[in-house]
Amino acid sequence: MSSAPSRSNADPVADALTAAVAAVSARVVAVGAANPVVALDGRSGAGKSSFARRLVAAWPGHGCVQLVALDDVYPGWDGLADGVDYARRVILSPHARGLIGVWERWDWEASARAEAYAVDPSLPLVVEGSGLLTPEVARLADVSVWVEAPLASRKARALDRDGDTYRPHWDRWAAQEDRHLEAHHPERLADLVVSVP
C-alpha cells in the first residue's frame, strides 16, 4: 500500500505554494544577506498572503522575519498606488539604508492611519501586496516575486476571504491593478514568477 496521497485528496494550491516557498527560499539563501528583502506582488486573490505566511514560517535562517501586508497600509479602496508609495518611502527605503522604518496601519473603518509599527533594518523583511512591484521597489528588493492565478480562482478566494466587504469594490480595485500592470509590467520586474491554480 502506498503512503502517497491519492489524487482526490491533493490540494493543488497548497502544492503550488509549497513549491514556490522552496524556490524563493533557495533565492534567499543565494543572496547570502542577514537581512534580505522579499517583495511579493500579484493581483487580488492570487495567494500572496498565504504564500507570505508560509515563507515566513519556513524561512531559511534563524531569528525573526518581519512581514508587512499592504492590506494594512493601503489608504482605502482607491489607495493601491498611494499605499505602495507609502510602503516604499517609510518601510523599504529606510530598510535599504540601514534605518528603522516606522509605518502606521490604515484603519479601514475610521479611514485614518492608526497605531505605528517599527521595521528593524537588521532583520529580514517580507512585504506582500497588490501593486508592489514597481521599478523603484524592485531595486530595493533582494528577491522579487510575481504571483499569478486565473481570474475565477482569484475572485473566489478573495470573496470567500472578505465576502460582502470586498464584493462592492472588486471592479474598482481590479481597475487599479490593471493600471499597475500596464504601467509597470511587474511580471517582468520579478526574479521569479509563481503560478497558483
Give short descriptive properties of this protein.
Rossmann fold; alpha/beta; 7 strands; 7 helices; globular; 5-stranded parallel beta sheet; disordered N terminus; 197 residues
Largest sheet: 5 strands, parallel
Cα distance spanning the termini: 29 Å
Number of domains: 1
pLDDT < 50 stretches: 1-6
In round numbers, the mean pLDDT is 94
SSE topology string: HEHEHEEEHEHHHE
Q: Any idea what the CATH architecture is?
A: 3-Layer(aba) Sandwich
Short description:
With 197 residues, the chain is an alpha/beta fold. The protein has helices at residues 12-31, 48-57, 80-96, 135-140, 151-166, 170-184, 186-189; strands at 37-42, 66-69, 101-107, 112-119, 125-128, 143-148, 192-195. It is globular.
How would you describe this protein?
By secondary structure, the chain is of the alpha/beta class. The chain has one domain: 3-Layer(aba) Sandwich (Rossmann fold), CATH 3.40.50.300. It is 45% helix and 20% strand. The protein is built from 7 helices and 7 strands, in the order αβαβαβββαβαααβ. The strands form 2 sheets. Strands 2-5-1-6-7 form a 5-stranded parallel beta sheet. Strands 3-4 form a two-stranded antiparallel ribbon. Strand 3 and strand 4 form a beta hairpin.
